[in-house]
Every structure is written in structure tokens, then in C-alpha cells.
Write a structure and sequence with these properties.
Elements (H helix, E strand, L loop, with lengths): L1 E6 L1 H7 L4 H16 L5 E3 L8 H4 L1 E7 L5 H17 L12 E7 L1
Helix pairs in contact: 2-4
């Protein structure tokens, strides 16, 4: 199943402080950590994600789903806030980073 993570306005401002490779690495690492807790396989491919910042979208693939997908992505959103906030100024607020949208079931 393909899922697009559509970045919010504040999320887009935060990811703008990173390059594409850093974003792929952050989302891949945090997804892998959460997969130890949730029964789901998430792949963060480089192909198709060459312009994350410009598009404001990161596409991921999920497979072998045996958990609540919404809960997984809510927790992923909370987790990735940590590295994203490190490059923001203290005045910048970061609420929701992205909204998960199922593209292909």
C-alpha cells in the first residue's frame, strides 16, 4: 500500500532546513524504530522521493500490516518532530508535521 505523507505548512517550513537525503534517512530510521513496536513493514524509497521539499510530500510503502496504520503514522509524526525541531528557532512552533493519505491500497 502506498501512503503519502503530506507536510503541513509548518512541517514544510521545518523540512526546508534539511536536504532530501537527510529527510529520507530521518524517516527511514524513525520508521524502523517504530516497526519494532508495531507489526507493520514500512519502506521509505529514494525513488519517487527526489523532491520532497519542493513537493511537500514524502511517499512510503507499507506492507504486512497487523496494526492500526493511523496510530503508527501519528506516532511517527510525533517522533520525527525531535530532529526537525533542532534546526528551527525557538520561536518556530511545530505542531503536526504531516497528514498521512492512502494513495494505493
Amino acid at each position: 500500500m502506498k501512503i503519502n505523507l503530506n507536510f503541513t505548512n509548518k512541517g514544510q517550513a521545518a523540512i526546508g532546513k534539511f536536504n532530501n537525503e537527510e529527510l529520507l534517512e530521518i524517516f527511514g530510521r524513525y520508521s524502523n524504530t517504530l516497526m519494532k513496536k508495531y507489526s507493520i513493514e514500512v519502506t521509505v524509497p529514494a525513488e519517487g522521493n527526489e523532491a520532497i521539499i519542493e513537493r511537500g510530500v514524502l511517499s512510503v510503502y507499507v506492507d504486512k500490516i497487523e496494526c492500526d496504520v493511523d496510530t503508527f503514522f501519528k506516532e511517527l509524526g510525533r517522533d520525527v518532530k525531535v530532529p526537525l525541531k533542532k534546526r528551527l528557532t525557538p520561536e518556530d512552533k511545530l505542531d503536526n508535521v504531516f497528514k498521512a493519505e492512502t494513495i494505493e491500497a
